[in-house]
Amino acid sequence: LVARGYEAPPMEKSSTFSPTCRKESLRILFSLAATNHWKMKSIDISSAFLQGISLDRNVYLIPPKEFAKPGIVWKLKKCVYGLHDAARMWYNTVKEKVEKCGLQRCPYDDAMFYAVDSAQNLQGVITVHVDDFIYAGKQTFHQVISEELMSGLQIKSQEAQAFTYLGLEISQSPDTHCVSVLQDKYIQELSVIAVTNQRKSQKSHALSPVEYKKLRSGVGQINWLAIQTRPDIAFHSCQLSNNLKNPNVSDLTSYNKLIKKLKSDDPLPLTFKPIPTPELGLKLAVYSDAAYNNLANSGSQAGYLILLSDMDETILNPVAWKSVRIDRVCRSTLAAESLALSAAADHVLFIKENLKKLVGNITPISIDCYIDSKGLKELLEKTKDPSEKRLIVTMAELREMVENEEINVHLIPSKKMPADVLTKRGVDCNILREFLTSNNHI
User: Fold this and answer.
1) Contact between residue 258 and residue 233 where contact means Cβ atoms under 8 Å apart
2) Is the separation of the CB atoms in 109 and 25 below 8 Å?
3) For the chain, what is the radius of gyration of the CA atoms?
4) What gap in Å lies between CA 105 and CA 94, rounded to an integer?
5) Could you give the CA distance from residue 180 to residue 273 in angstroms, rounded to a whole number?
6) In this structure, are strands 109-116 and 104-106 parallel, antiparallel, or unpaired?
7) Residue 389 to residue 383: CA distance in whole angstroms
8) CA–CA separation, 9 vs 263, rounded Å?
């Protein structure tokens, strides 16, 4: 049953917004599950919207023709798919049930909930994406989820050890407790766009409406892959997205090359391993890089990679990454590198606060940022001031973070920078691939 919600009067955005778990939160859950040797499970709710709380307003529905009777309309008791606030009503249902179970909502992610004991030790974490749940924790936490939270709800499926969640192929080793995440099935379903040899030669020609529609759809699929499990294609994904403003035949060719490469490459799973001695502290390792003036219209690209590790960085679990065109024209390599580090620092400080809510203030969490710009490192040490006045503001923010010991900044060789592939074409992806698969510090 689907309502024709587009015929209903507009509603306030606050009444229709339904939070879904952040990507960082999901990857933190994977790391915590591996580290604490927690078993992970997923749950899919059947016809979730019909199991939500009762409507607090009058909504009348014209019955489907199979059930229509002259002069009769239906008055809805529950939200159905198609109504503006259906997802919000379901989220409110979940939130209400979660709070009754004694779980706490993370203040930085409305779709992440966790439980602690009387000593404030973490017992388990659950994340929500509409009607899909994934959780991990101690046995008592699993009992709370299955016996209390899911009580009264119709469950479509419940899986553990190996399952698909939001298109992610997730598996957990029963022996090592390592979590592996990939999208190989998703990649194999991607398809190239048919282009004749004659059309390929017309590189600068604009796309036809049919070609544009296919490319836009394909780029959307690539973007989903890049932000979920494949940081190695994040730059290419960003470039294709930016070019959609005025695409030409060469963009079709670039898209097809990327699809063929993805299909021929070996699978690249994200691996989350147990972090040793987390009670001694955790570390967020950040690799930040930029490419100056390598884009159209004098644009520059920034990229960064954030990983969760132990204090000695023997294990590195991926938490977040970004490849993005810097939102202003940079006047120098130094400016591009500074803005990239500023964006990375902003993101990692948010992740730290999110993580602190889960592990508590007793566990120290430090942030180490790695850059390959000697000039930026010197500026951070106040050896000189930048000539660009706008850059002084950015540097003041970064210096304050360093002085307050919010972040530590280290210089590494450019040839060992894993974030290099996030900023430009022609970079050897094996550096990042080996970095992610070996889980060893460079």
Assistant:
1) yes
2) yes
3) 24
4) 11
5) 9
6) antiparallel
7) 16
8) 46
